[in-house]
Input
Amino acid sequence: MPGHPESPPRLVAIERRLEEEGWLGWERRPAPEASAEVLELVHTPRHVAGIRELSEAGGGAIDVETYDGPNSYRAAAHAAGGAAAMARALLAGEATVGFSALRPPGHHAEPEVAMGFCLFNSIAVAAAVAIDELGASRVLILDWDVHHGNGTEAIFRDRDDVLLITIQQELIWPGTGLAEDVGEDRGEGFTVNIPVPEGSGHDVFLSLLDRVVAPVAGEFAPDLILVSAGFDAHLEDPLAGLALTAEDFGQMAAVVRELGARLGAPVGAVLEGGYSPSALADSVATTMRGLGGAGDPVTAPETEVAAAAAERVARFWPAAGGS
Ligand SMILES: [Zn+2]
Output
């Protein structure tokens, strides 16, 4: 859709930047289309068929901001397939880190609902493939997109083999992701929602990685770490009000890289939001650098947000209770 923030120039900006920098020495791989069967690991057959049929009919609006264009089924199926291919490569030991930079994003897509620019939940597909097809026992999904990963939460909220830790700006769209929401049934405690106040930046995110993500991940012992890597928590993003910089994303990536190395779990990032093309391109590049080994993890400062979140999650994850 002309003028829509989630548009092809996002990927053009990323690819141009990476091209200039020789793709940072990373190997590029194709993103094959996910089959309906694979998409149906996390979506209902009715949802998958509905998106396909709407695309085939020429496309149309799903809600006021989410569109399914004539090529959208194909694009979304490749985005999911690329994330799944990355999970396969990581679990086969072909690499210890990966980045699936495709669009549209996916973390708002629920089992039967497309919303928030998202048609299929690519990171959820990757996690499901890791478990159902590749024999992973536990997958950690860290979602640092500025918006709540409601779709990923809806898909896994009653499961204890996928742990979702999702950090979002409080009170913004879609309005879910409250701290009290911890999952249900077997999945109680396996959804960790961390709303953060407007203006949060480096200190809040780095301290959350240190005080919450690292101890909880250590206790969960994932076979694979996936990152819902949205970059709309960037200071310059037009859709939200947080204050991260491209350098901060690089530092966060370095921390997650070290965490994965410590736990023996490969780390794969999946692109979500990020609507300032230049900030997005900068941030993807610094994230890839951080994942790829640049920069030592920085010492995280203490913040009230992280201390409160650690105290809250210690009910389910005692490792977060130590100070
Ligand atoms: Zn977002």
In short: The pocket of zinc ion is lined by residues 145-147, 230, 232, 272-273 (CB under 6 Å). The longest strand covers residues 162-169. DSSP finds ten helices and eight strands in the chain. The radius of gyration is 18 Å.
